C-alpha cells in the first residue's frame, strides 16, 4: 500500500478504510474522498495516537460550522448488577466541573458562542458532543476534552445529581414509549441481564451508587483506547489532531502507550419470545409486536432495511396504509429495527384505543404473515429504496450528522462505507433477497408487549 509523510506533522499517511483498531500507531489514513466536478467536497481522515486514541475527521466544503463528538466504548451493558445506571450517572457528572472549570463555566463557555452542547448514554457507548461555528472549534475541543479526561466527580456533586437522575427515572416511568421499550428488552434478553436492563438504572440501584464506585468506573472505562474523537465541518485534519492532543494530553491522559480497542463482538444471542404487560392510567393502549432481528454487521441488513421500510417505515407502508388510512384504527403505527453486536430486534409499535387493540393485533399479524409468505412487491421495493436513499442523504446535510456517522462507524463497526457505497448497496437489493430475509425474520417467535389501562 502506497504511503507518504503528512507535510509538517511527522505523521505517516496511508490509504485505508477499515476500523482503526488495527492501524499502526502514529499514522494517518484517508478513509474517504468525494469530488464534484474535480473539487473535493468531503475528505474523511483518521489518525491513531500512540495512546490508542482515535481521531477521525470529515472536512466538509461549503459549511461554516464544526461538530465534535467524543465516543466512549462503554454503556449500560458493560455494568455489573451493582453498577446498574453508572454509565448514565457518570454522563451527568462530567458536566459538573474539572480542576480548571466549574459547572457554570462549562455551560457559559458554550452559551457565549451560541454552541449546542449535550451528551447521551446508550447500551454500548456514551457520547459527549458539541456543535459550534468553525472559528470556535478550538474552544469546543478544549471544553469537551477537559470534561472527559479531568472530571472531579466530587461527593457533593454525586449527591446533588442523584436526585436529578431519580427524577429522570420517574419521568421515563411516566412515558409509555419508554416503558414499553424497556418491557420488550426485558422480555427479549432478561430483566437482570446487561442488554435487558434499562439504561438509566432503577431507584434502588441509583440510590446505592456512591462516589467511590462511580469514580472507579470512570477510571476503568474512560481511557484512550476506548475513545474516538470525531469532528466534522469546516476544518483541517492536522490542526484538529493538534487541538485534541493539547486538550486531552494536559492531565497525562495520553501518556500511556496502547492499541485501540477492537469493535465489540460476541457469540450470537437469541431472543426469548413471550407476552409481557404493565398497567398505566392512559387513554390509549401502546403495544409492540417484536421478534429477533439481525446482528450488527449482517450483510443482509440492506435487504431487511428495504423490507422494514415497506412494512412500516413510511406513510406509504403497508401497516400505515392498512391500520391508519384504510381502517382508522390508530394514529401512530410504525416498524423499526435495531442491532447490537450479537443480536437485534425487529418490532411494530402501535398506539390505539382499548376497544381497537384486538383488531390492530389481527391486522399486524396478518400483514407480517403475508410479507413472510409472499415478500413485497416490485413497487414497494422501489418506494422503500427511494425512502431510504432520501432519508440517508438528507439526514447527512449538517456537520453534526456527519460527525455522528463517522464516529459511530469507527467505534462500533469494522469498516466505514461511503455514502455512495451505501446508496449502491440499497440500489442493489433484489426482490429475492427481500423475500428470503422477510421469510426468515417475520416467522420467528413473537414478543408481545402491552402498556395501557386496566
From TrEMBL:
Family annotation (InterPro entries): Metalloenz_LuxS/M16 (IPR011249), MPP/UQCRC_Complex (IPR050361), Pept_M16_N (IPR011765), Pept_M16_Zn_BS (IPR001431), Peptidase_M16_C (IPR007863)
Compositional bias of kind Polar residues: 1-10
PANTHER family: METALLOPROTEASE, MITOCHONDRIAL-PROCESSING PEPTIDASE SUBUNIT ALPHA
One annotated GO molecular function: metalloendopeptidase activity
UniProt region (Disordered), positions on chain: 1-25
UniProt protein name: Putative Zn-dependent peptidase
GO annotation terms (biological process): proteolysis
Organism the protein comes from: Nocardioides albertanoniae
UniProt-listed Gene3D superfamilies: Metalloenzyme, LuxS/M16 peptidase-like
Family under the similarity heading: Belongs to the peptidase M16 family.
SUPFAM superfamilies xrefs: LuxS/MPP-like metallohydrolase
Domain Peptidase M16 C-terminal, chain residue ranges per copy: 209-388
Peptidase M16 N-terminal domain span: 54-202
Amino acid at each position: 500500500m502506497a504511503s507518504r509523510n503528512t507535510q509538517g506533522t511527522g505523521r505517516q499517511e496511508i490509504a485505508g478504510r477499515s476500523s482503526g483498531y488495527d492501524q499502526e500507531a502514529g499514522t494517518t489514513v484517508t478513509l474517504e474522498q468525494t469530488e464534484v466536478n474535480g473539487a473535493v467536497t468531503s475528505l474523511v481522515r483518521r489518525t491513531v495516537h500512540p495512546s490508542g486514541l482515535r481521531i477521525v475527521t470529515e472536512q466538509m466544503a461549503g459549511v461554516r460550522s464544526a461538530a465534535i463528538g467524543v465516543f466512549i466504548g462503554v454503556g449500560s451493558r458493560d455494568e455489573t448488577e451493582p453498577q446498574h445506571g453508572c454509565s448514565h450517572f457518570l454522563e451527568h457528572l462530567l458536566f459538573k466541573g474539572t480542576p480548571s472549570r466549574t459547572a457554570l463555566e462549562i455551560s457559559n463557555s458554550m452559551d457565549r458562542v451560541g454552541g449546542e452542547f449535550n451528551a447521551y448514554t446508550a447500551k454500548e457507548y456514551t457520547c459527549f458532543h458539541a456543535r459550534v461555528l468553525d472559528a470556535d472549534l478550538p474552544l469546543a475541543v478544549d471544553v469537551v476534552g477537559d470534561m472527559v479526561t479531568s472530571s472531579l466527580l466530587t461527593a457533593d456533586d454525586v449527591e446533588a445529581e442523584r436526585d436529578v437522575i431519580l427524577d429522570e427515572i420517574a419521568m421515563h416511568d411516566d412515558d409509555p414509549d419508554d416503558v414499553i421499550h424497556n418491557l420488550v428488552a426485558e422480555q427479549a434478553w432478561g430483566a437482570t441481564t446487561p442488554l435487558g436492563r434499562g439504561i438509566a438504572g432503577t431507584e434502588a440501584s441509583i440510590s446505592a451508587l456512591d462516589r467511590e464506585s462511580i469514580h472507579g468506573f470512570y477510571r476503568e472505562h474512560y481511557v484512550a483506547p476506548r475513545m474516538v474523537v470525531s469532528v466534522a465541518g469546516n476544518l483541517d485534519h492536522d490542526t484538529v489532531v493538534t487541538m485534541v492532543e493539547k486538550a486531552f494530553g494536559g492531565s497525562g491522559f495520553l501518556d500511556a502507550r496502547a492499541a485501540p480497542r477492537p469493535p465489540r463482538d460476541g457469540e450470537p444471542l437469541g431472543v426469548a419470545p413471550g407476552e409481557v404487560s404493565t398497567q398505566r392510567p392512559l387513554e390509549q393502549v401502546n403495544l409492540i409486536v417484536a421478534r429477533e432481528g439481525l446482528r450488527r454487521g449482517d450483510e443482509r441488513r440492506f435487504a431487511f432495511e428495504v423490507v422494514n421500510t415497506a412494512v412500516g417505515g413510511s406513510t406509504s407502508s403497508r401497516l400505515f396504509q392498512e391500520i391508519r388510512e384504510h381502517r382508522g384504527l390508530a394514529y401512530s403505527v410504525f416498524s423499526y429495527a435495531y442491532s447490537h453486536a450479537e443480536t437485534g430486534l425487529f418490532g411494530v409499535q402501535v398506539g390505539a384505543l382499548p376497544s381497537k387493540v384486538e383488531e390492530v393485533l389481527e391486522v399486524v399479524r396478518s400483514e407480517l404473515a403475508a410479507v413472510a409468505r409472499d415478500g413485497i412487491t416490485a413497487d414497494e421495493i422501489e418506494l422503500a429504496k427511494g425512502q431510504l436513499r432520501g432519508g440517508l442523504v438528507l439526514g447527512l446535510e449538517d456537520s453534526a450528522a456527519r460527525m455522528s456517522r463517522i464516529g459511530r462507524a469507527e467505534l462500533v463497526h469494522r469498516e466505514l462505507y461511503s455514502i455512495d457505497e451505501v446508496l449502491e448497496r440499497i440500489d442493489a437489493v433484489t426482490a429475492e433477497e427481500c423475500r428470503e430475509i422477510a421469510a426468515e425474520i417475520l416467522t420467528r417467535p413473537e414478543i408481545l408487549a402491552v402498556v395501557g389501562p386496566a
